[in-house]
Amino acid sequence: MDVVRVSRRLSYLLRHRPDTAGLTPDDAGWVDVDQLLRAVGITREELERVVATNDKRRFAFDATGRRIRASQGHSIPVDLGYARERPPEVLFHGTPERNLPEILAQGLRPGRRHAVHLSPDAATARRVGERRGRAVVLRVEAARLADDGAAFTRSANGVWLVAAVPPGYLTAEG
User: Domains plus CATH for the chain?
Assistant: First the structure.
């Protein structure tokens, strides 16, 4: 089994297009594990290995182990139920360099996702940004943004989520 390939397939199905495999997530994004296993053509043990070894902990089982969902990054409507939380003073966002002029002019927006994803450290943000080219890391004044009314939540895998980040809260770190 190619763990990376299966992880990508799970991300696609659980975050964006469950309908392509006949899956119907509930309002919180959970799908039945047995249905997912049949749709993807893997065993329970293989699924558990993908979930356990994913470096970004993209997937989570519910308390019963009978349902699974992506921890964040959905383009389909879901209510992940994460509680509002006070962010640290600073968070980070990694992006390809080519995006920098637009971001500095318009801020960070979620695009096709439900929220902007922020990392707790610059190294993680850089790795995220490098997936699609040479990266720049943006420093986000998260506590100040929260003080100004933005609602932050944190996903099960530690990614911070916010609706948007206006340009005045961003500094490019290179």
Answer: 3-70 (1.10.10.970), 91-172 (3.20.170.30)
* Model pLDDT for residues 34-45, shown as the tens digit of each residue: 999 999 999 999
Q: Going along 24-165, which residue ranges are E strands?
A: 31-32, 59-61, 67-70, 91-96, 116-118, 135-140, 152-154, 160-162
| CB distance 91 to 140 below 8 Å | yes
**Predicted TM-score of the model (pTM):** 0.78
**Gap between the Cα atoms of 32 and 34, Å rounded:** 6
Dump pLDDT digits (tens) for 21-69: 999 999 999 999 999 999 999 999 999 999 999 877 889 999 999 999 9
Please write the tens of the pLDDT for every residue from 75-109.
Answer: 898 998 999 999 999 999 999 999 999 999 999 99
Alpha carbon distances (Å) from 95 to 60, 105, 154: 25, 15, 20
- The closest alpha carbon to 117, from 127, 128, 106, belongs to 128
- DSSP assignment letter at 58: -
CA distance linking residue 110 with residue 106, whole number of Å: 12
